[in-house]
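I'll show a record.
***
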Amino acid sequence: MTSERQVDHQQIRTNQVFTIALLALAFVFDAPALAAFTAAVMVISAAVPALGLFSRVYRHLLLPTGLIRPHLVPDHPEPHRFAQLLGGICVTLGALSLFGGLQVIGWALVGVVIVLASLNLFAGWCAGCTLYYWLNRLGVPGFDRSPLRGTR
């Protein structure tokens, strides 16, 4: 299935910067509540993109200043939302572990998301998108978008 839809990859990068920064601060200051807040933002953003806090900051604060310019790319938004949902679930489980006194497990789960978001931000590889497309190739229901021609 081909599509002429465009995804603003600058908005995705902005989301990753906020996610990495907030989760790193949560770790440095041992603040499970900040990790839980970040998880909630990620899950809400994946479920209802129009309500995404980081995306709203991007659109309503950063873009109008001209400091950041959109980078529209022919792409499907579904794999990116799936990746964000997986990250949000991982951070949610991490925060729950932290609140339950399981520090090593909790921070390890948060750390996985920091590493994967950093790989996407700095290397351009999205683990969740890759998983989405693998599930598409396997014919798993709900994963109905194939990579666009000329993309990963």
